[in-house]
Design brief:
Blueprint: H1 3-30, H2 37-60, H3 71-86, H4 91-113, H5 119-149
Length: 151
């Protein structure tokens, strides 16, 4: 794999992490149930830390790290905001959208892991992928807990 391709893959994952960070912050702001705010802020901090780690790898491989999220991530957050406004900040809808965002993160990491990455990069991406899967599980559990509470 060419070094430019490694850097491009890492920068794509940085965008994914930034999207997650900003998405989780948006969910924390929009959700009405206070017990969900801190878990979202914790998840956002984890995404920020993952982006920082990936930025270090980009620099180590001679590249310039991405500094912001993707256009699709921005559009997704705006969709969450619009949907929240229309639906009166319905917690289940917010949690569903948050899970949808995590589905994208899982797919992005899976696609990166299918590439012939250098071993140092692959090790970091594999470890972070496990974190992405854990984030997805946390969001699903929060959504399920919200559904039970609303019954």
């Amino acid at each position: 794999m060419k070094n430019e391709d490694v850097i491009s893959t890492l920068n794509d994952l940085i965008e994914t992490c930034k999207d997650g960070e900003l998405g989780f912050k948006t969910c924390a702001e929009d959700i009405s149930d206070g017990q969900f705010k801190q878990p979202f802020l914790t998840l956002a901090a984890g995404c920020a830390a993952a982006a920082q780690e990936l930025k270090g790898l980009v620099i180590a491989h001679g590249g310039t790290p991405e500094t912001k999220g993707s256009l699709s991530g921005t559009l997704h957050r705006r969709w969450v905001d619009i949907k929240s406004a229309i639906m009166g900040k319905d917690d289940e809808a917010i949690l569903n959208e948050c899970e949808r965002g995590e589905d994208v993160a899982v797919r992005s990491y899976r696609e990166a892991l299918e590439k012939p990455l250098p071993l140092d990069v692959k090790a970091v991406v594999e470890r972070q992928f496990q974190g992405v899967l854990q984030n997805h599980d946390v969001v699903k559990k929060l959504r399920d807990r919200s559904r039970v509470a609303s019954l």
